[in-house]
Every structure is written in structure tokens, then in C-alpha cells.
């Protein structure tokens, strides 16, 4: 669960988030998700911080989705009703990926770095990555490629119409306020 401080920092970026069309992603653990009051706590933190639900994405890895499927689907649906997006992180790193995509109401699919690294050198990796992107788009999911480190990887993903790429090619992880400052500086230069 994002802390009040994390959401407050994201909330201070609200005015710029709408203008720049980015969202802040937060990893949630299975124990947090299994808590009976997860959605209520999330709503309370949003209210306390002034952060908008639309600018938040809750990320879960495949390994965290193994508890009560019905309860998890219900939580995801409630989060989505608030406007929060739900992402499956590290897609492809587990052994039940397709089943999760079929049964859970995700908005975002984040392709694991293992299917990005060396994409320009290995035809099997390229075939798998392009197939994941095509499948996700047909399911109307936003696709984010994780761990993009080279221009060749980026170029391949652009050719495959991947929606978003993240990784050291673009920069190191930063706090939300620093990200906003970075984008504001680059938009003033452009």
C-alpha cells in the first residue's frame, strides 16, 4: 500500500500529472491486498493526501496473485471503479501468466525484463515479446516494457507498437516530484 507520504508527494504533482499524462505506480504485497480494508484504506489515504485515483496504478506481480481469486477480482474491480488502474508486473516471469490475464481485470501489462533483454539478438525473444504485445493490445491492455537499456531494444519495441518503455535507457528511478521537474524542463525546451 502506498504510504500517506508517497501519495501526498504524488498528490502534489496532480496539476502536472494531468498535463503530462503520467501515472504513479505502486507495488502492493499480497498481505496488503488480502487485508479486509484494503480499498477503504486506499480511499482514506487518497482523501487525506488529495491525490487523484486516476493518477495511480496498483502493481502486482504474478506470484502475489495466488490467494483468493474471487476476493482479488472484487478488489481490482473496486479499485478500477475509483479510477485507479491495475497492472500485472513482471509478466512472463511466473508460470501462470496467461491464466491471470484471462481471469483478472487488468488495465496494464508490464513485460518482464527477461523478454526485453537482447531482443535485437535473439529471434525467439523477439517473437515472444512481439506476441505478448499483440495479445495485450487485442485484450485492450496498455503494454509497458520493463528494463529497456539499449536503443536497439527501444527501436524494436517502437516497431511492435509497445505503448510505454521504461528502463535505464531513459533514466534511473526517481521520486515523483523529480520526475515532474524533469518533464517540465524538457517540455520547456521542446
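Sequence proposed for the structure above (190 residues):
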Amino acid at each position: 500500500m502506498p504510504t500517506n507520504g508517497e501519495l501526498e508527494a504524488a498528490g502534489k504533482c496532480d496539476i502536472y500529472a494531468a498535463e503530462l499524462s503520467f501515472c504513479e505506480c505502486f507495488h502492493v504485497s499480497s498481505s496488503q491486498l488480502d487485508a479486509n480494508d484494503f480499498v477503504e484504506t486506499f480511499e482514506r489515504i487518497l482523501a487525506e493526501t488529495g491525490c487523484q485515483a486516476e493518477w495511480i496504478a496498483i502493481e502486482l506481480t504474478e506470484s502475489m496473485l495466488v490467494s483468493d481469486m474471487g476476493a482479488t477480482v472484487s478488489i481490482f474491480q473496486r479499485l478500477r471503479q475509483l479510477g485507479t488502474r491495475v497492472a500485472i508486473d513482471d509478466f512472463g516471469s511466473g508460470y501462470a501468466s496467461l491464466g491471470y490475464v484471462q481471469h483478472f481485470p487488468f488495465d496494464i501489462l508490464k513485460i518482464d525484463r527477461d523478454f526485453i533483454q537482447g531482443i535485437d539478438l535473439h529471434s525467439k525473444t523477439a517473437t515472444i515479446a512481439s506476441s505478448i504485445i499483440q495479445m495485450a493490445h487485442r485484450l485492450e491492455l496498455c503494454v509497458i516494457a520493463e528494463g529497456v537499456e539499449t536503443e536497439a531494444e527501444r527501436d524494436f519495441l517502437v516497431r511492435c507498437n509497445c505503448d510505454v518503455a521504461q528502463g535505464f535507457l531513459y533514466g534511473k528511478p526517481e521520486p515523483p516530484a523529480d520526475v515532474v521537474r524533469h518533464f517540465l524542463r524538457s517540455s520547456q525546451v521542446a
